[in-house]
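Quick illustration for those who missed Monday's session on complexes.
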Amino acid sequence: MRGRAIVLMGFMGTGKSEVGRRLAQRLGRSFVDTDQLVEERAGKRIAAIFADEGEVAFRSLEHAAVDEAAGRGGVVIAVGGGAVLDPENVRILRAAGTLVYLTARPEVILSRVGDAKSRPLLRNDPRGTVTQLLAERDSVYAAAADVTVDTSDRTADEVVGEVQTALARSERWKSST
Ligand code: S3P
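Prediction with shikimate-3-phosphate bound:
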């Protein structure tokens, strides 16, 4: 294992995957996306997993993906927006590294998740669902987070810089590196 992981979490449309890829590149680390791992292991897209097997089956695959990603050591990990709702996933991710909560205003999220086809939870009434899920989840994300970065009015590269700055100030991150 080489160092501790950096875990990007937060709601859909906050740029976890894009920022994670760029952050990993900047740091010379590998990047792991749990949604992508789930799709690889299941051999089908997330929307198809939800449609064929339901959300409970997806969450079980996601848990296995979180476990696998965390086991890779000092990588950058982006987890799906619902992953940290499972306290066991939070425990695994905290043991592996530092958790970065990416946020965005609801309007920004809605504009970024334009293609709701790939996001089964937003298939019906995206606006209402985003509002409701954000209200339900914000405190869970915040409780799990070591650092928080607002992505609303920033490019992915600007967010990468903000994440690096926030980590440099984080006692938990500093004590692990
Ligand atoms: C989900 C978020 C999605 C994906 C799945 C469920 C959620 O990931 O894991 O559709 O519960 O918020 P992204 O946050 O990467 O879109």
